[in-house]
Amino acid sequence: MMAEERPWYHEIELYCRDGTFPEEAEAEDRRAIRRAALRYIIVGEVLYRRALNGVLLKSAADHVLSYQNRLSRSFQKKGIEHKFQEGGMVLKQVFIKPGGPRSKLQANWEGPYVVKEVYPGNAYRLIIADGEELSHPWNRLYLKRFYH
Fold this sequence. Notes:
Blueprint: H1 10-18, H2 27-37, E1 40-43, E2 46-50, E3 56-59, H3 60-78, E4 89-93, E5 109-119, E6 123-128, E7 138-139, E8 143-145
Antiparallel strand pairs: 1-2, 2-3, 4-5, 4-8, 5-6, 6-7
């Protein structure tokens, strides 16, 4: 298994199981692995972390999975899905060319625009209220709902 494919706790598990280090480990790495391994113990075939009071905590693999699940839930909770309907009114984010004139009082959004078509992948074809169509579709990341 390549070093990039190994889990973060591989060296600790190897040391706890056999008392050996990876071949590429230098003296400083060995010292760090030895110190980190003091907080872990292998029970059966599973690596557990020891709490300061000696209680065994989740296995290292379970810890990684629970962290990924918590991170995923947190991201999904914060991600707000904006779907715009055809005929809805939106504002478009203003893009300033690098080196172009910019003022802190300048508007960050322009519009309103009317959504003409909805494409897959959160892309929207916009038209100005007088019927003139914009040159290309816009992603929803650069749009927000216009409240009038």
